[in-house]
Amino acid sequence: MNRPVNEEPAAVVIRPETADDHDAISSLVAAAFQSDAEAGLVDRIRASREYVPDMALVAEADGQIVGHVMISGAVIRNAAGDRRIVVLSPLATLPEYQGRGIGSSLVLAVTDVAAQRGEPLVVLEGSPAYYGRLGFEHSLTYGIEIRLPTWAPPEAAQVLRLASFDPDDPTLRGRVVYPAAFDGPE
After folding, report:
1. At what angle are helices 22-33 and 37-47 packed, to 10 degrees?
2. pTM greater than 0.70
3. Could you give the angle at the alpha carbon of 130 between the alpha carbons of 125 and 132, nearest 5°?
4. What's the half-sphere exposure (Cβ side, CA atoms, 13 Å) at 28?
5. CA distance 46 to 52
């Protein structure tokens, strides 16, 4: 799954993260968000049963980790019960590498992995302008409620429907419930 992305000044390779990458990932996530909170989220996800190693990818340029993305487990809850789904969070690129398409390439690569695994959809909280150009849509359009932080606009609740998405499947409608790993400090 090593997929080169032609970016200047160096070629970027997207690959699954390894244990040797964890310190570099922590540093880059903290730098990208200008906060240690999201780096802590990555660590909590990795330590949880919701962690999916093949859906945690890095972008590497000149031997340096310059981007990271994770998709992990969550559920949609409705009257019929809980249905396992996946959530994309977080996505990070080193500040000096932002604006070069690395984040978009990571999102496309990790959602391809999710599709190959047979996942019906990916949910996230994020910029509608950014993620909309990558195929994400407002989640409420599909009956999926994502409780957002007070600072986020309603359109930040988004979903990407993958090949196995069945619009008639009632278990794919309801409220997204994040796993405990997301309950850490904000």
Report:
1. 140
2. yes
3. 80
4. 24
5. 8
Convert the chain into a string of H (helix), E (strand) and C (coil). Answer: CCEEECCCCCCEEEEECCHHHHHHHHHHHHHHHCCCHHHHHHHHHHHCCCCCHHHEEEEEECCEEEEEEEEEEEEEEECCEEEEEEEEEEEEECHHHCCCCHHHHHHHHHHHHHHHCCCCEEEEECCHHHHHCCCCEEHHHHCEECCCCCCCCHHHEEEEECCCCCCCCHHHCEEEECCHHHHCCC
| Structure token digits, residue 47 | 């330590």
Q: For the segment 6-51, what is each residue's pLDDT rounded down to a tens digit? A: 445 468 999 999 999 999 999 999 999 999 999 999 999 999 999 9
Quote the CA–CA distance of 55 and 175 in Å, as a whole number.
23
